[in-house]
């Protein structure tokens, strides 16, 4: 059974600092999605990573995928308060399913 | 409005009652999905549909029923609601390719079962 693990689950960081969120998954998959969720809101697609070595960047966020290590990272550069949200990774499971990580709740403090 | 909408946005019901959550999308996306979100569990797939009249179970289908007579609508019914079904329910859709394409999520329905 596919398991998707994110860490950390909670992250409090100062504005201007850098940090990385990790997403490990337990079976072979060549696609990985990152979503953002603001409190009380729906999920918004951030990145779609479609192959090994894929790297996508938007603003202060950069996502990468290593399918051999079954690992995706979401790197935050020079964090700002507006990045405070919960970030989810997800990957298709064998057969017909999509599995999400539990989410990383990010708080950026001034 | 264009996009994906859910109704109602908030619902309180009692144990044993039937409740239906509606999902409507205007993009003519082939695939539609229902997820529930609970603290500590992220999102879990309940049911999905590849096209009208084609539905299949996800990770946690027990206690739920779906139908899809039209491409744009994908209602989720709790036949006899239980407290454990208190959750936030999200509908999503994707252009095609099922689980290999980006999913676009609705605003969610917050359901409380007393």
Structural overview:
The complex is a heterodimer of chains A (110) and B (114). Chain A is mainly beta. Chain A has one domain: Immunoglobulin-like, CATH 2.60.40.10. Helices cover 0% and strands 58% of the residues of chain A. Chain A is globular. The N and C termini of chain A lie far apart (41 Å). In chain B, the strands form 2 sheets. In chain B, strands 2, 4, 5, 6, 9, 10 and 11 form a 7-stranded mixed beta sheet that branches. The termini of chain B are far apart. The chains are: A mainly beta (110), B mainly beta (114). At the A-B interface, β5, β9 and β10 of A face β5 and β10 of B.
The computed structural class of chain A is mainly beta
Order of helices and strands of chain A: EEEEEEEEEEE
Q: Give the N-to-C terminal Cα separation of chain A.
A: 41 Å
Q: Uncertain spans of chain B, ≥5 residues at pLDDT below 50?
A: none
Q: Any idea what the shape of chain A is?
A: globular
Helix/strand-derived category of chain B reads mainly beta
Mean pLDDT of chain B: 92
Number of domains of chain A: 1
| Assigned CATH superfamily of chain A | Immunoglobulins
Q: How much helicity do the residues of chain A have?
A: under 10%
What's the CATH topology name of chain B?
Immunoglobulin-like
Shape category of chain B: globular
CATH superfamily of chain B: Immunoglobulins
Quaternary structure of the protein? heterodimer
